[in-house]
Amino acid sequence: MSDRISEESSPETYTRSVESRNLVSSTVLSGLFERTDMDMVSPDIKGEVMFSCNVPYCNENFGQENPINTLPLLNHYKNKHKQLLIEKVQEAIKSSKTKEDSILDARFLDSLTDTLSGITKFQGRSRVRPTSKKLSGRRQTGPSQEFCSPQRFKRLYTQSLIGANIPFDTCDSLHTRRMLDAGRFGLLNVITRELTMRELKQMYYKQVKRLRKEFKEHVGHFALTLNQWKVRSDNHFLGITVRFFNESLELKRYNIGLEHMKKKGENSQFLVNILHNVLRYYRIGDRVISISRGNSALMADVITSFEKGYFGKDIRDFDGDVTCFKDVADLTVKAFMAHAFPQEASYDDSMEEDTVTADVSNSSLHMHVDVKALPEKIRKLTRSLNKNDELGALFDSEVTIRKHTDTRMLEILKNENYTGWMSEYEMISCVLYFKKQVIEVYKEVGRLSSKEKTRLAVTEITEPEWEHLETVHDILLHFVDHTKALEGSTYVTIHATVPSVHSLLEIFTTMNTKCLPLTKPTISRGLAAAYDTLYEYYPIYEKTCGRLKILFIATVLSPEFKLRFFQNWEPFSRDLIKSIEKELKNLFWLYEKRYEKKRLQNGEICDGLTRIDNQAITVKRKKDVFSYLSKYNRLMKKATEIEIYLREENESSDFMEYYQRKKESLPILFQLAKDIMAIPASSAPDESLFTILSDLGTNVNSISCPAMTKMLAVVKDSVMSMKPGDEEPSEESSDEEIEIDDDQNLTDQFIKEIGDSGGDTKETDLDDAILG
Q1: What's a Pfam family in this record (predicted)?
Q2: Is the pLDDT at 712 greater than 50, yes or no?
Q3: In the structure, what pLDDT confidence band is assigned to residue 767 with cuts at 50, 70 and 90?
């Protein structure tokens, strides 16, 4: 063949002819077909090209006219020589060429991704760099595709599913697979429900490994929370979280377990065994300082059983039972509302007529009857204004007028959503906010005929009833402030529990004046019932600390309260103050022994704030004939940390700021406060963390997946704490098994769940699906 034929058959010449007809690189057909320009064979045939398949024993030839249509040529290899095509792709990947300069740039490979198993590590260099420094993080110095292999994409995709609460079934949906097929070569092989669940398993054991390491390095104890969580009527879980302050006083909180309970009525010993197993798994079973839990009989029994079997490190006896403040507040409000809005007339009301004047008695009885019907009256009003066009138009008109002078911009009355007393408070608050507008609506309704009034079924709220609502609202507002403050999960709350309870008890006493039983008997009895209920759980005015020891100590360790809080308020007796101080010093002594032992092991001992070497200690002991009394001398010297702290004036600075300053001068007190202040006053915030897992914890067939749900509870912490640019360490590849003494029962259950949920993912014929 002449030089001219060879020149025109070169890749450069072929590129121009092919790409004018079909935008595919000339390298796509390189080595696949032999090209012959027919005008060089016969001058009578002009503009035609013959392509002959290079596969031995394949006699297929394709005649084409310029510009070349490559589609039938490529389909020939897809249909007849698919394995050879796969080998060509593998060679291209190993050659380290860019995607644009290899066969990988061919669009016809898209529908082959299901069969190209194992081709997932292509990392061709991209000419496009990240434009956002905020999102690219440390990767902004290199090409984006250099770090985006299909395996890395699988990890990021799994994290996105967990972070956004998207069920794993989404991976196998047609729309997801169409997106993956169009997005990047090789993604269809790594994104399936089965593979993302296996990625979850790897993430779980990585997180366990990190937590074990962090817990081992932590110098101190751990505060736990226990919560029961219900997915469905037949699925119950025990949620376990751990909290602690590190040496930098950063509050750490992790979910360490969401244990499946086969039925709600599991006995307390079963739950205690679960708790012990989880603590042993993380190797912190002997360093628990407290357990905050809900106010249920089952949880109380769990704590009792746990106390009996606990043998801790340094602090051997467990005395850290903390009842969730929110649960107690709910019971207290319930007791108040049972009297503030009674369902039926009580015996006490009928007896009041004999003990008070006729006018007051009749007024009280009338008020009681109105109050009984008041809740339903408010509900009917709210429903009517929101659903009735006529009343709604009147109400909207009044609200529009108010908008000109009010910046709060509330526009509608809130319906009660039956989620607890907070819902009732919001409904009452909203009705009072629109009091003037509601009264104007009543005036308009008053001008209607009796028939129209009956049809609208709206009964006017009287002035005494408005006054009753305002009083109830003011009382509930105190509960709202106290409950929301003590529900905080990102700051210290335990120290404010006793002061908050004292504040509420004072409010109940102050508001329940002598005349209140005569003017508002239901509210008076409600306040008395609320006082009794709250004091039943928090008997803070007794002569000894009792079961509230940990709460009293936390209050004293707060630099803004100390012992002076109890000394300045009359209800707290001198005996109680002495008891608190004694318990604090006893606990401090245990911490002192622990850290003294560590210092002795390191070859040093602490005499006040002076460091003494071993030689000096030896000489001193030789001369001291009363060495057997030395432990008492050391105790007296080191106990001055408590004395120094209590003698100092109270400070308004917060916990972190104060103890960071005192870390060197009061080292043992620092460690004690660090452990105590990590205890949450309420377990409710941790409970809310688990409720977002319900969609992720069940598959498309509504089969319960307790193992997967547990893994999600643990992994979600790390996923939600990620910041832009955060990534798993590169040395921890998702394909490598994490070497950890994993829970074999959990692993077996997880594998079973993958199988039950259809882990054998069926390949989807995307081309047929799109055409269909």
Answers
A1: Dimer_Tnp_hAT
A2: yes
A3: very low
